[in-house]
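Quick log. Single chain, no ligands specified.
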Amino acid sequence: MKSFPGFSEDKSEQTSIPSSFFTDLLCQIDTLGELKTTLYAFWYFQKQEGDVPFLEVKELVSDKKFMAGLSESPVETKKILEESLNRAVERGTLLKVEMTKDKQTLIILNSPRGRATLKAIQESDWDPRENPRLEPSLEVERPNIFQLYEKNIGPLTPMIAEDLKDAEKTYPIDWIKDAIQIAVRKNVRHWNFVVAVLKSWKEKGRNEKDRRGREEDRDKYIQGEYSDLIKY
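-> predicted structure:
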């Protein structure tokens, strides 16, 4: 058995679960697969921003860490997932809808907002996937940049999530971490400032002093051409 190091007190790493899950559902759920899938759905929905959190089944399947926790057998894993989702839908915890244009299945929480979302999809052929959104994963590597932003800059939004993805493709992750640390040390917790620092490094180059983040190098982002960004 792998040892667990313990829980963090960081509020950005906490997930809220409705009290009715414990009072009404917990004692009813009788398979481990349904329990894991239901808890994953709560976590996934809360990691998203916006009015319509949802989960595509293909996204769930692509989360290797979650799938590996269902079974060691890939064939058995998919079977367990399908059964678990069906049980959660039949129980009324989750809602399921198949999109007409590509036959992909969306999973939505059975809440007033979730039922309104389901109705809008069914009656108007509306596709909530048209709006940019964060696609969480249990894999540590994938959400790392998002966690870094939330811990140091502020709440994550779909627009910022897209900007972070673009930044990750454009700049080394160490650059992004260092630029965010500069923003934190100078108390300029704004993504525009971080981007300005990254662009400067890309255009003018970085040396070892930049990487170490020494105070004299950080000052140029505050006292020079980027000083106006502090106001935003």
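Residues 50 and 158 are 7 Å apart (CA to CA).
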